[in-house]
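Late entry, evening session. Most of the bench is empty. Finally got around to the prediction I had been postponing all week. Sequence below, unchanged from the version circulated by S.P.
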Amino acid sequence: MASEACTPIPVSFACVTLHVMGFTGLIKAQVSIPTDNNVPADAVTNTMWFVTSDLTAPTQLQYETIQAALGSAYSTMTPHLSARMNLGAATVKCYHWQGPQPILPAFTGPITFNGAPATTDGAPEVALVLSYHASLNQSGIPNARRRGRIYLGPLAVTGAVTPLDNLRSAALAMGSTLYTTLNTGAGINGVKWAVYSAAQNGAPWVTGGWVDNAWDTQRRRGIKATTRSTFPA
């Protein structure tokens, strides 16, 4: 990949509709990937948002569509994720965000990673960010409320250093896969990938995204120390 300025994933479809209070089709999807120690607190999580294209309450088929789309998208990162990740136990929980209180998972299912996982691991705090956005520069709406991001990692190490361009290509493929599957044309089964803003009370559809050429850090993914070395001896 050439080290050029960051540009959004090319799009040919733009929807500027802001979905507002009164619709019932908002879905919160939380992907959780356990580590090899199977300690729940150490699981790596990312949250993404989806809406039904007709804004009605989601169906079982639509939850399963999200499950499959996330599996295809995450699979682009399989060879780059740390060997400490227990990919075979990854799950997605979907919440109907406008359902009755308290909001419990309406759907829980496995995320299937295709391809061979990595055999090495790097620092668990190091991640690569996949940023995405809805249509920007809308009157009266700050752009920050129309952007989202997820932290991809922990990452594998190839040799001494993991080539950043290889990871950027894989992360871009992940965003492009999710976008192309759900947000191009009619999409599949009436589900759209969205950016949710509680402040704006809206969930416009994703229209593009980017990956920059800098590492990011998620301190909460760090492993607690178990030993300490001292000096002088």
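Two things to note before I forget:
Residues 164-183 form the longest helix (20 residues).
The chain has two helices and nine strands.
Will write this up properly tomorrow.
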